[in-house]
Amino acid sequence: DPVRMEKIVSLCKRRGFIFQAGELYGGLNGCWDYGPLGAELKRNLKDYWWRKTVQERDDVLGMDGAILTHQEVLKASGHVGGFSDPMVDCKACKGRFRADNLENLECGQKPSCKPGEHKNCELTEPRAFDLMLSTKLGALATDDDPKALAYLRPETAQSIFVQYKNILDSNRIKLPFGIAQVGKSFRNEINPRNYTFRSREFEQMEIEYFCRPEDGLRLTDEWLEARLKFYEEIGVPREKLHILDVPDGERAFYSKKTYDIEYEFPFGIQELEGVAYRTDYDLSVHQKGSGRPLEYFDEETKERFIPHVVEPSAGCDRTVLAMICEAFDEEELTDEKGKKDVRTVMRFMPRMAPIKVGIFPLLKKNEEQVRLCREIQKTLQPWMTVFYDDGGAVGRRYRRQDEVGTPFCITVDFDTIGENGPELQGTVTVRHRDSMEQERLPIDGLLAWLLDRIR
Ligand code: ATP
């Protein structure tokens, strides 16, 4: 549905979720900047992932590795010389395209090759295009100095494998256990497209779960379930996800089982996350590459072996995009006079919403209302994002918050300040985004009431 996607992209720009990187200078293809609301949304996702993956589990530890990566690490892992996509050239438009998905190939960069007409174009044979981005380190590095070469990591996983032994030795932990990491990765994608879906700079949320060989397949299924539950909890429902059990011959050669978790984006069903049983491939290649032992010694059985690995690897930007696509709604309303209206509302799960609560004085000129709003705001701010707004009619303020997905709005009115008698003094109106219903709550109980609903 391209129309829906256009609306989403335009809302994201208009309200400050996502901007193209370097837009002022014509834009940097495949790179995106998250604006104030996008940054909050992404942070909420990463924090919740960390909480569920590391904080609330005894068997997973976190780490935060360097982006710049030793070339030997990526030689041993097989990335150097091996991490590429098949690419074809179109002889008519001179464009270059990823060849593994020819039916979706969009050659439309030049008027001579319009989308859909590309099948008439003459394409070259596919050849490998290196996706790795590199740089030179050090003040004395020259362009041809091979020792100065370093890579921007193409995945966060490798620093986990490389630090596996240090983490094992510095923590009292036994198999099975995992190491988790959230961070930037870089790939020189041939055709960045579908908004932030395929970018050249992106963030990943990865777990490498080390285990005994006989447990690998079972744990892969368990992680798949845990990950599906996670998506449910952030507002991406099970029925919008597709699980692809990647068949023999299409998996990486070392993988005994791979599930792709895919989401129904407006532009098609596409991968959000891969859950792969990678056997002992990774630690074996690093043991060989470094010449250092990476075996695990099992105290109970007195066995020495290289642990196997199950890897749930999710894309942060893709998940943010899925949450945005899932939340976007245009609701048709009819007011008392029968007038029709469309309400744009982002139905984010409260725990993911960039702004948790809007706070409004009914009348911006009423000093007591404003003072109370500011006081409530100060009480809530250590715990959540609060947005104060006194501009225009309250109804308009609600709509502005609906459009960015704020689940609750608080209004301080004349009842609150006791002008209509003592009964409602000290209470505020809380308005719910989804139902648009309102209820009266005491100011004293607001923090607990809200915390209950946003955790
Ligand atoms: P694709 O087939 O879409 O290129 P992939 O199978 O190469 O993805 P993995 O190497 O398994 O991806 O990376 C794990 C996760 O990292 C993906 O599921 C995705 O969420 C994210 N990811 C990978 N490449 C990109 C990218 N170019 N832009 C945004 N996210 C990405």
Automatic annotation (TrEMBL):
Enzyme class: ligase
Known EC number: 6.1.1.14
Alphabetized InterPro entries for the sequence: aa-tRNA-synt_IIb, aa-tRNA-synth_II, aa-tRNA-synth_II/BPL/LPL, Anticodon-bd, Anticodon-bd_dom_sf, Gly-tRNA_synthase/POLG2, GlyRS-like_core, tRNA-synt_gly
Pfam families: HGTP_anticodon (PF03129), tRNA-synt_2b (PF00587)
Aminoacyl-transfer RNA synthetases class-II family profile domain segment(s): 6-350
UniProt keywords, alphabetically: Aminoacyl-tRNA synthetase, ATP-binding, Cytoplasm, Ligase, Nucleotide-binding, Protein biosynthesis
GO MF entries: ligase activity
Transmembrane segments: none
UniProt family annotation: Belongs to the class-II aminoacyl-tRNA synthetase family.
UniProt xrefs under PANTHER family: DNA POLYMERASE SUBUNIT GAMMA-2, MITOCHONDRIAL, GLYCYL-TRNA SYNTHETASE/DNA POLYMERASE SUBUNIT GAMMA-2
Protein name: glycine--tRNA ligase
Organism for this UniProt entry: Haloferula sargassicola
Upper taxonomic lineage: Bacteria, Pseudomonadati, Verrucomicrobiota, Verrucomicrobiia, Verrucomicrobiales
Name of the gene this protein is made from: glyQS
